[in-house]
Each structure stands twice: as C-alpha cells, then as structure tokens.
Amino acid sequence: MDNNMDNISEESLIGTFDKLVSEGVIVYGPSTSIKVEDEGYPMEFRICPALLTKPHTVGAANPAFNKSRKWGPGSDMFCPDERLILTQLNGTHDLALNLFCVDRPQLLLLTLDSYRRQHESLTSDDFEAMLEVLRRFPSMYVIFNCGDKGGCSRLHKHMQGLLGPPYAFDYLSSASEDGKKVPFVYFSRRFNQGFKGAKSSDVLEVYTELLGRCRKVLELREAETCPHNVIMWDNWIIVVPRRNGGTQGASANAGGMLGSVWVPDQSAVDEWLRIGYVNVLKELGVPST
C-alpha cells in the first residue's frame, strides 16, 4: 500500500464507496432527518435503518462479519474486503472506508499498531493523519471517541471522517462571543494559521492543554483514563469531557455531542425526547450549569 493521498480525490472516494455499497460490503442506506432545538441548542437526528446491524457496544458480536479477517492482531475491527483500505498514511495509519455509514462516504483512520486502544489519548502521529484527511477532503470533519464513556463501540484505536459541518458547530463555536448557552462543558481553540498551516506538534500541544482541563472538570488523577471527544473542523479543535457513553437508552459519540446524532430507528429519538434532549447531553457530558 503506498503512502500517497495524491491519487485520492473526493470523487474517487465516492466511486469506490458506491461500488462497495452496491456489492453489499459497506452497510449504508437512506436516512431520515429530524431537526429539533432544546434550550436553543440545535440537534439533528438521522434515522438510518441500515445501522441496525452495527455493533454499538465494545465486545458486541456481529454474526455477519465474525468470520472476516480482523484489522491486525489484537484488533476487534473487521476488514471483510481489502478494497476498504484506501492508502496508508505515514507508516502509522490505514485510511479506509467505514463499514457502517451514515454519510456518503465515511472514513476510518486506524492505527497500524492494532494493539493501540481507544481509551488512549491522541498522539502526534494521530494528529498528523487527521490533518492530512482534513487538508485532502475539505468537506470532512474528523472525530475521536475516547473510551466507552466517550461513546466508542470498538477498542482498536481509530478516528473517523464525516461530512461536515457537525450540526451544532456554528452555534457552539460562536457561543462564547454571543453569550449563547451550551448545555455541557467543552474546550475549544481556533488555529489562526488554519489546519493547512498547523503542524501536528502544534495541535498536540493545544490538545494536551485542553485535555488537562477535561481532567480537572472530571476530577481525575493523572494516571486515570480521561474519557472525552475530539472534533476537528473549520480550523477548530473542540474537546468535550465525558461522564457517560449513554443514559437510559440514549447515547452519543463526538458527532452527537455536536448535534449530529445517528440512530437506527424512531424509538431511539423517542428515548431522547422522553429524557429531554439537553438532559441527555448533560448526563453524557458535564453540565455547564
């Protein structure tokens, strides 16, 4: 596998994606959008029935894929078709198409060291790979769900690329200036030099500082794992401390905290409504008030 993204355009990505969907390799189908607001916070629920086959919890089995090859020793992620792998980045990550998709296309960034774990914090190599994706595919944002409480469903360390923007991004990124209320605590920084000019070491430095603030809010000792979400889009990095992966049947990953929630059916939306949209976000994150 070459280490070159020059021959991968958004157009070629979609071509490969569509072909693998038509052959039943990638699980993807139509979704319905429901847009709501609670205490001013905007949210979009994408109901995607194709997600019913996705394993949503760590350790969950998926009979359809259990015989597929794993993504390396120690990995709990499946690679049923080599065409899912688009290229290798910097000798550290595979850039691949996701098996279970709400977007067309949706990307996975997996560590080549398949013993790396999702509860570990991000490294300079991870940011190098994330920056490459953001530069090559300007319509995409990248997320990282750190640990069970961060909403991850697989243990092998990976990030994801999704079609931007996250639904509540504009609201959230301008909240402090406009005095708008965000229901949960988050920390953010805009890179004035842009992702194009940012080095992975710059991003790591900012992330380390924001992660330290997450630890404080969650009252964690240095040695303890810090569950959190990372979202990178439009030259911003946003880090969200997490207390829970789900509550009373409602759950969210990094995208969900930023207003883009993907669910397999209407009953999941009903759960959010029953508990209260903002109440769920406060339970998953740290309430801002």
From TrEMBL:
Record-annotated ATP adenylyltransferase C-terminal domain positions: 180-287
Pfam families: Ap4A_phos_N, ATP_transf
Domain Ap4A phosphorylase 1/2 N-terminal residues, every copy: 73-160
Origin superkingdom: Eukaryota
GO terms, molecular function: ATP binding; ATP:ADP adenylyltransferase activity
InterPro entries: Ap4A_phos1/2, Ap4A_phos1/2-like, Ap4A_phos1/2_N, ATP_adenylylTrfase_C, HIT-like_sf
BP-aspect Gene Ontology terms: nucleotide metabolic process
Name of the protein this chain belongs to: ATP adenylyltransferase
Biological source species: Neocucurbitaria cava
